[in-house]
Design goal:
The complex is a heterotrimer.
Chain A: E1 24-28, E2 40-46, E3 49-56, H1 64-67, H2 73-80, H3 88-103, H4 109-137, H5 141-162, E4 171-172, E5 175-176, H6 184-207, H7 210-216, H8 224-230, H9 234-239, H10 246-249, E6 262-264, H11 270-294, E7 315-321, E8 326-332, E9 341-345, H12 347-353, H13 355-359, H14 364-374, H15 378-382
Helix pairs in contact in A: 2-3, 3-4, 4-5, 4-11, 4-14, 5-6, 6-11, 11-14
Chain B: H1 13-20, H2 25-39, E1 44-48, H3 51-60, E2 83-87, H4 95-104, E3 110-114, H5 115-120, E4 141-143, H6 150-165, H7 169-177
Parallel strand pairs in B: 1-2, 2-3, 3-4
Helix pairs in contact in B: 2-6, 3-6
Chain C: E1 2-4, H1 12-15, H2 17-37, E2 63-64, H3 79-83, E3 89-95, E4 103-111, H4 120-124, E5 130-131, E6 140-141, E7 148-149, H5 151-154, H6 179-185, H7 192-196
Antiparallel strand pairs in C: 2-5, 3-4, 4-7
The chains are: A alpha+beta, B alpha/beta, C alpha+beta.
Amino acid sequence: MDLVQTEIPEGFTRSAGGGHTEEYYLNMGPQHPSTHGVLRLMVRLDGETVKEIVPHIGYIHRSIEKMAESQSLIQNIHLTDRLDYLSCHMTNLGLCLAIEQGADVGVPERAEYIRIIVCELQRIQSHLLWWGCFAMDLGALTAFLYGFDEREKITDLFEELCGARLTMNYFRPGGCVSDLPNEFIPRILKICEHMKTTLDEYDNLVSKNMIIRERTQGVGILSKERALSHGCTGPVARASGINYDVRKDEPYGIYNRFDFDVPLGATGDCYDRYTVRIEEMRQSIRILEQACKDLPDGDFRSKEKPNYKIPKDEHSFSSVETARGNFSTYVVSDGGKTPYRIKYRSPNFSHIGAINDMASGYKLADLVTVLATLDPVIPDIDR
Amino acid sequence: MSDETTAPASIPEELSQQFTNEGGFLATKLDTVINWGRSNSLWPFPFGTACCAIEFMGTVSSVFDLSRFGAELVRFSPRQADLLLVAGTITYKQAPILKQIYDQMCEPKWVVAIGACASSGGFYDCYCTVPGIDHIIPVDVYVAGCPPRPEAILESLVQIQNKIGDEKVSTTHVEASS
Amino acid sequence: MAKIIPRPQLSLLEQLYFVEVFKGMALTIKHAVRSLAKPETIPVLNYPEVQPELPAEHRSEHRLMKRADGTSRCVACYMCQTACPARCITIVAEESPDGDIEKRPATFDIDWLLCVFCGLCVEACPCDAIRMDTGKAILVEDSRDAFIANKDRLMDWSPADYPAEDIISQEAPGGLLNEQALAAMQGGMFSAGDVADVADKETC
């Protein structure tokens, strides 16, 4: 039988195939359940196949960098809470490191260990939320409940530590606001033990499911060269094979004392981004156990100054590895009480720039999968 | 509640008395039933833009469990939802979209402003943030916090349910006809 | 060490889709049966029947601390108003009848709808006059005006609601003269010896 039917069967008015098809533009608007916030994607479609994507950002632009110029450095720390709110300890740490560099403030040993413990715990928390949302975007709604249930255990710990569930505001230049509460370390170790078995269980639920494998393997491939040219960092870059982790390559704090692996992927598809994040959770548990074992006694903060001032015309720069990638802070000072300019380099901005490379040529449903594995936090892009 | 609902064609005189009298038996019974149905099956539309959306997701999850109030069926289409939960900062770029979504929702509808940013602009005293969504759409309940606890979001739902319980549905319909 | 994660090859049994589906269902049924058999393992916190137990450090609604004579410890120094990033605190100062305590607040308003509950006002206060430990984190109203707390509302608390063994005394003079308060609140910045050298009159 001929593939292109030239004769029109009985009852039909127009011929199928060989006719004229058009591409059209679809607006995955800023309000959409799977855009992880307010991201607008204009998609050029040919049927169901995505030809080109143009992301529009700025729907949650809150001028945090502009407001930084009228608030003191300490007030700025709680502004960084609102950037990447799922790894807010790490963004707080980024600004604190920049201030310590510029104002020449030392950090006691115990504070360094507390910082590592709290940051790695938050990394696990952020990846748990990502895991739940990833499965939910693919349609498996139960995994969302499991992920959040586990996440609540860590949220309770943070609430006792710093008094808030999401916008923590716990680090200051020179250390932390307060010391660890009673029984904190044994509870962390209990959570680590619990996570080891549940992580395997939940991972098997998702990664051994044939449907999820079919939907993620070979989909959304980002090659190493394209990832480098877009400036991708974090799990997205590591899944494409780029061996870059700020904790290993530009260590801050005392990360060079800990023994952990950096997971890499081979092909850069969605499944690789998934396995890299699961393995990162396991490595974070490893770091936590080492840090909890070696936690020394001592001060949790060096002597507090009433006002932290960076000398005039000093620039200070720091990079931290958040759950999404390299988050850098650049502070320029004019000697006054407020900084002249603070610039934040957000990892999600580069990832959204790479979405055209990742999702073009695949179906519209694959676009949702790609966005889920990118794990964007849009306020971090718009600042 | 809008007054533009179409009134029934004709009501027998004695029945109309039961409806128009304050505290008429049939009117209050009908109100109770309708309000009970509406308040226990609110379908929320989570208009989540920023950090408060994460606390809303925590409210839906198993520890705080929004489904105990009958509101677990989050609908992402405004045509199918009746409770608009604005969680997060609304900027001037996003404001027309919020208004459009609110207009697309069918009556009856209620609005909750979750968090400092949605209620009053929070600490974003800048060129790009709307200082409270009540500049754009009418708000029924405000929830303070940055972000508010999931229990506060549940409390706002309880207050919306109490508000619905006080509504007089049947008399509004009849007044429109007379 | 960087290592490439190998992609696990599924065995024949795992490739049969239904086997994994049944395993997933088994996990769900396990959770369901465990919840039915042991209701105490259900993680749900039944608000509003069960009120949340907040830890002491939770940043909740503010309260103004009092001196032994019932007046507020606040000396209207405006440190909290300056430190507040949301500018939700509004203080109007007036002269205090006591010559040693020069100022006191005539009005002290906090707009809880603007407040971001960051705790910077508590850190900034030199007199331990404002704290965020009321434990009231559920603040839901239906009009904007109901969120503005004036001085009376902020001082409307009783010591009986707070733990008696709280070493930061509820009704002490506060500030420099309350050594224990300072040592505990500012994490050892001052020690008791430093405090004894400060002025011996009640100034804060």
